[in-house]
Amino acid sequence: MQYFDFRSDTVTLPTDEMRKAMAQALVGDDVYGDDPTVARLEEMSAKLLGKEAALFVPSGTFGNQLALLTHARRGDEVIVGDACHIVMHEVGAAAVIAGVQLRQVPSINGSMSLKDINRMIREEDIHYPDTGLICVENAHSSGSVVKLSEMKAIYELASQKKIPVHLDGARLFNAALVLGVPASQIAAYADSIMFCLSKGLCAPIGSMLVGEKAFIDKARKNRKLMGGGLRQAGIVAAAGIVALESMVDRLVEDHEGAKYLAEKLNAIEGITVLEDRLDINMVFCKIRLNHLTEDAFVKKLLDAGIKVNGSEDGEFRFVTNYWTPIEAIEKLVTEIKQILEAK
Ligand SMILES: Cc1ncc(COP(=O)(O)O)c(C=O)c1O
What is the atom index within ligand 1 of the atom nearest the CA of 207? Predict the structure, then answer.
C-alpha cells in the first residue's frame, strides 16, 4: 500500500533526480579530503550562507552536537531556549559529548527575551561556569519563525560579550522563505549554522555545519572524533547538491499546503488549529476525539493510507512536504472529517 506520510518532513524520500546523481557521483575517501562531490557540496553550502567553510555531517543532531563540542569547553554553560531541539530531542547528548551544561531560557515559539539571555550570561566568579555559547533555533520546531531583528539583537549582545552564537537551522531555508530574505542574511547573525538536507529538501541523509574556516577546521577533526569521518560520502552528498540546486525554492509549496490544510481542518467541528504557529510546513492542532481513543484515530488514518503521529502535549502535528501533494492534503481532511463524524 502506498501511504501519504504527514508525520514529519524527515520521512521524505529522495527524488528521481537525486537517485540519478547518487548513482553517477564522483567519489573518493573524504577523510583524506579526496571526495570531489563532498567538496563541492561544502563549497556550495558555505557560499550560500556567506561563510568561509562548511562540513558535511551525517545528521542534524550530529551537526548541533559537533558545534557544541567545537565552540565550548567541558563544564561551560550553553544558553538555549527551553523548548529547542538540543534540549528536547537530542537524548541529552550535550552532557555526554561536549560535557556542557545547558542553561535554559524561557521561550515562546522559539523566541527568547534579550533580557533573559543577558541575565543568564555569567560574569567572572570563582563559583560560576563560563558561558561558552548561545544557541538559537530558526525555523523553530514549534512551526514558528523567529524574527530577524531578534536574531540580530542576540548576536550583537553575544558579540559584545565575546560569546559565539550557533544557529540550529535544520529548516533554515523554510525560515528564509518566510522572512523573505536569503539564507545568508539569517546566517549573518550566527557564527556557526547547522542546516539539514534531509528534511523538506528531500535528500536521504546529511546536514551541513557552516562557519569560519578556523572553526570548520577544528570541527572536521572533532567530526572524526565523533565517528563521523565518512569515506565515499559523495554518494550521499550528490543528493545534497540536487537538494540545494532544485529543492529550496519549492519549499513555498509546502508552506502553502500547510496553510490550506489548516484552513480546511479549522472548518471541521472539534478541531482547533494553533494559528499562531503556522509559519512553515507544520500544522499543529487540537482534535476532540469524543469516544475514539487516540490510537484508534491514528490506526483509522493508517488503514486509509495516511500516516500521522499521535499527539504530543495534547497537540497533533501534520507536516506537509514534497510527497504530500494537494490530493494527499484533501484526502487527509476528508478522512479526518469522516472519522470524527462517524457515530
Ligand atoms: C530543529 C531541529 N534541529 C535538529 C534536528 C535534528 O536533525 P536529525 O533528525 O537529522 O538528527 C531536527 C530534526 O527534526 C530539528 O527539527
Answer: 10
